[in-house]
Design brief:
The chain is an alpha/beta fold. It has nine helices and 15 strands. Helix 3 packs antiparallel against helix 4, helix 5 packs antiparallel against helix 7 and helix 7 packs antiparallel against helix 8.
Length: 261
Amino acid sequence: MKHRVWDQLRSEAEVITRTEPLLTSYVHTCILSHRSLGGALSFILSNRMADEVMPSMVLRELLEEAYTTDPSIIDFASHDIEAVFQRDPAVKTFLTVLLNLKGFQSIQTHRLAHHLWHSSREELALFLQSRNSQVYGVDIHPAAQIGKGVMFDHATGIVVGETAVIEDNVSILQSVTLGGTGNESGDRHPKVRSGVMIGAGAKVLGNIEVGEGAKIGAGSVVVNPVPPHVTVVGVPAKIVGRPECDHPCDTMDQNFLREGI
């Protein structure tokens, strides 16, 4: 997967050098001067996340060390790029995802923070969480688990708590919260199973499961478990129907009015 995605990214970058002279230097620096997706991604993220406290070179070394230690991080990134390309009709190239979409970049930044968290470097992981929030407007606790093929569409205002789990192939829109219900301790955040789509502004609260292939309508407040392959809407959210496909994350269909139970 990662080699195919990288080949496509390089091909698209070559096209840009011929069609948009003002971006030639940019795509060469970000893409064509690197030998792999990991090299390009570490360069892009380190420059976006750097500040006066944490220079880009230090961040790049952290990223490349993480990619060497855990190659699955790059494999997951490849699946994320393809997921966004397939699901977002506004995205015409893989290159757009890698260079421009903060939802994708915020997830990849979290993957580094998650790696550091499990390498007993918790304070550094929390620093990256803070920078992720400042730069991209996305707040993901480093301990949260995120699978592959995940899309944060628009991404602004997404909050993911410490014990939350997002499995493979999930789509989440802006201003979604996967949070707790109060001042609990322990396992207190949602578990979102594969194939789920969560609409803009939805709040999913507590240690509850959102079943495989479920759909949560925009603006809903979910405080009870959601069975697999149902649509829930409202405050509090209630079952109103069943998605028209097994994987709502793929179709991104926001309309629930035509669904029946």
